[in-house]
Amino acid sequence: MPKRIVIWCLPILVLIMLLPTRRVAGRDQRAPVHQADEIETLVNKAADLIESEGRTAFAAFRRKNSPWRYGDVYLFVVDLHGVVLFNAAHPNREGRDLLQEHDAAGKQFHKDFIAVVRESGSGWVDYMFPRPRRSTPEVKWSYVCGTIVDGTPALVGAGVYVE
User: Fold this and answer.
1) Residue 142 vs residues 46, 54, 112, 120, 138: alpha-carbon distances, Å
2) pLDDT of residue 162
3) Given CA atoms 126, 66, 50, 130 in this order, what sign does their dihedral have?
4) How far is 109 from 132, CA to CA, in rounded Å?
5) pLDDT at 13 over 60
6) Considering the entire predicted model, what is its pTM?
């Protein structure tokens, strides 16, 4: 390799190595579970329905044993400020600003949800959260996707517990 090419490339390589990198939890990762494609399809369909029907879609999402809610799978919707607009399994969380909430490991997962949506439009986030009707946190992977709820930028998500 000619010496002048090395001299020309060296500063560029050093600059690239010094650029700060930031990794958002869940970005470019897929849930390590067999249901990943199923969850992504569910959430993407929910986002489409929310954009066409707004909050009226929430009634269908709340029904147990439906295509939207089954087993431990349920949908949740959070605006991009961290306020829970809808949560099928935990309606007591609705209307609450949970942006600063930490999971059992200290992770602010709502911030991670929002960061993934703002930076990538959609993606996976792992965190600790109790299953419905239980109190002990378990590893959960949620897929979140950006959407608009009656004019408000938000995200819709659903997750699976890793067994």
Assistant:
1) 14, 22, 11, 15, 12
2) 85
3) negative
4) 18
5) no
6) 0.79
3-class secondary-structure state, position 142? strand
User: Where are the alpha helices (H) located in the chain, listed in sequence order?
Assistant: 3-18, 36-53, 57-62, 109-120
Whether residue 108 contacts residue 121, with contact meaning beta carbons closer than 8 Å, is answered with: no
Q: Name residue 148's beta-bridge partners.
A: 153
Model pLDDT for residues 89-148, shown as the tens digit of each residue: 999 999 999 999 999 999 999 999 999 999 999 999 999 998 888 889 999 999 999 999
Residues 6+ apart with CB under 8 A from 126: 25, 26, 29, 31, 139, 140, 141, 142
Residues 6+ apart with CB under 8 A from 33: 141, 160, 162
**In contact, 112 and 123? CB cutoff 8 Å:** no
Distance CA 21, CA 155 (A): 25
